[in-house]
Structures
1.
Amino acid sequence: MPWKVTTEFSFSAAHCIKDYDGPCGRMHGHTYTVRIEAHAHQLQGSEFCPHSVMVADFKTLRWAKRDVDKGGLDHCVLNDVMPPEYETTAEMIAKFIFDRTQAKLPPGITLKVGVSESPNSWAEYWED
Ligand SMILES: Nc1nc2c(c(=O)[nH]1)N=C([C@H](O)[C@H](O)COP(=O)(O)OP(=O)(O)OP(=O)(O)O)CN2
Ligand SMILES: [Zn+2]
């Protein structure tokens, strides 16, 4: 695919992993880093720009950094915000952000979402 954009941002949130035998099973917080890659064959307009000049609008891709009261994930309890079919592991947060982001975009854009709880650990989700 000839076009690719990448954006990285962070948000802070609390979570606990259900039935986890250890500290991660207790409510605690992280400043998550998210990296989203978007690929496309053609440039398009966006919800903010009518001209075909973007793979995907960074503003659209970065929705999750907004405050939870404004539709994002910042300063939320992930267990309360994410539907129960998603556990709050970095893997499933990546899938949740992938699914929500894809729903905000027109067809023809391929996404890859990475989520990190700490600089040493990343999870990524994409669909072939
Ligand atoms: N594959 C995954 N493993 C773990 C996840 C996850 O999302 N995916 N999450 C956790 C917990 O959320 C926990 O908060 C993180 O634990 P840990 O990696 O141990 O974090 P630390 O920064 O404390 O790492 P140290 O190695 O202890 O310094 C656990 N596992
Ligand atoms: Zn954690």
2.
Amino acid sequence: MNSSRDWVVLSTAAALGALASISVISFYFFFNGKRKRFPFSSSTSNGRRSSSNVVVFKSSSNGSDESREIKAQPLNPFDPSKRKGYLSWDDYFMAIAFLSAERSKDPNRQVGACLVSQNGIILGIGYNGFPRGCSDDMLPWSKKSKNGNPLETKYPYVCHAEVNAILNTNHASAAGQVSSNFVFSLLQFLEALCYYVSMQ
Ligand SMILES: O=c1ccn([C@H]2C[C@H](O)[C@@H](COP(=O)(O)O)O2)c(=O)[nH]1
């Protein structure tokens, strides 16, 4: 360290390094804090079971942010036992419903649905949105109309997540489920109709 110029260069480099570290740490904590976590624990059962052989897992969110902690385990390469804390089937299907809800463009409520057969096969997934082929930007997302015109609200157009899950059914995997799916579709259609009528 010969000259004062060296000291200036060294101090500037140290200051910039410290600034960069602070930025990286703040960035990490900011995004970790903001990220949504799956709002359930691995022991809960969230599927809505019915007398039919199809189960619908539904996630509905309006922005609340409960957290789910996954504990880290020390890894022993000689340990033959299976991993602990893995997702239960129900939480697995709920996680898929939760993830699907994240695709919804409804600013007020994001709903995701995962339709599962009794033997754990995913038949279809969906989220609330406008019908296929309709632009998300052409139809209104409002809950109320200033003119009292229901056609200026989302309700006549939006398809419920469960209905979309049925419409998105993979027909090959749904072989043998058709009759219960049909009954289920009718029930969901009636549910959607009742919901719409109740909003008027
Ligand atoms: O079972 C349901 C109920 C509602 N949805 C969808 C339909 C709408 O996009 C919203 C409800 O909007 P609000 O602003 O909470 O009235 O949720 C559904 O997919 N499935």
3.
Amino acid sequence: MNSFDQIYALVADRAVNRPDGSGTVRELDAGVHFIGKKIVEEAAEVWMAAEHEGNESAAQEISQLLYHLAVLMVERDITLEQVYEHL
Ligand SMILES: N=c1c2ncn([C@@H]3O[C@H](COP(=O)(O)OP(=O)(O)OP(=O)(O)O)[C@@H](O)[C@H]3O)c2ncn1[C@@H]1O[C@H](COP(=O)(O)O)[C@@H](O)[C@H]1O
């Protein structure tokens, strides 16, 4: 299990060390337009799961949404502090 800070740190590490076979590296390389579409897709899946599929499924979709948000933050060099100051 990971916290958001941990998944952000993992994505940031993938960006620097670029291990072979990493889906995160592939997504970072695909760029902000691709990542943005993933975020919109996952946000819709969160909504559908919460409305029609139940909390287990919604929680799974939320985890994917958080992952793609972390990837976007790293791709754009947005720090956790920059986000948290608005929370
Ligand atoms: N948490 C995630 C995570 N969530 C989602 N994804 C990626 O996002 C894809 C899901 O997006 P899609 O839109 O294709 O999914 P989907 O078909 O809509 O699937 P559902 O939403 O219907 O379940 C998955 O195939 C993964 O590639 C993730 N990829 C990685 N992680 C974490 O990042 C770590 C490092 O991953 P790598 O860089 O690939 O080693 C992993 O160990 C995990 O902890």
